[in-house]
Amino acid sequence: MAFPKIGNMAPAFSLLDQDGNKVSLKQFRDEKNVVLYFYPKAMTPGCTVQACGIRDSKKELSKLKTVVLGVSPDPVARLGRFIDKQELNFSLLSDEDHAITDKYGAWGLKKFMGREFMGVLRTTFLIGKDGRLKHVMDKVKTKSHHDDVITLIKDLGLHKS
């Protein structure tokens, strides 16, 4: 499946967060830029590195008028444990049926250790305050993801609007 087109409105969603609260893209409209990142599974090494980098960058992201939302097919309870264990300071959203992951084109064929299977393609979407998709990061490096996101927000001038 293809990614949504840059410049178009980002696909709408409402998903449950780690506390069972409904979070919708529209609630950030005109207020915050949104970094929507899709990751395969909570509490795995790569996903933990990626999440902790974002956690440690929260202050800078806030200064850039940006909120981060992580999306995975994990159930709500697992997301809560991940947040508690890693002391994460941003919301994780449960997309168990991967409907939103599909909508964003972040569900697809993966290869691991000679095996092929369907799963989450680690992908990040930058969405402006106007609700439009500004950038797609499909070559995500877990160790530098937070720095790469901050650089893109600045380069795209999203923090100025």
From TrEMBL:
Belongs to the peroxiredoxin family. BCP/PrxQ subfamily. It comes from Candidatus Seongchinamella marina. InterPro entries: AhpC/TSA (IPR000866), Peroxiredoxin_AhpC-typ (IPR024706), Peroxiredoxin_BCP/PrxQ (IPR050924), Thioredoxin-like_sf (IPR036249), Thioredoxin_domain (IPR013766). Keywords: Antioxidant, Disulfide bond, Oxidoreductase, Peroxidase, Redox-active center. This is thioredoxin-dependent peroxiredoxin. It comes from the Bacteria. Residues 4-158 form the Thioredoxin domain. NCBIfam families: PRK09437.1. Thiol-specific peroxidase that catalyzes the reduction of hydrogen peroxide and organic hydroperoxides to water and alcohols, respectively. Plays a role in cell protection against oxidative stress by detoxifying peroxides and as sensor of hydrogen peroxide-mediated signaling events. It is an enzyme of class 1 (oxidoreductase). Monomer. Transmembrane segments: none annotated. It catalyses: a hydroperoxide + [thioredoxin]-dithiol = an alcohol + [thioredoxin]-disulfide + H2O. Its EC number is 1.11.1.24. One of its GO terms (molecular function) is thioredoxin-dependent peroxiredoxin activity. It holds the Pfam family AhpC-TSA.
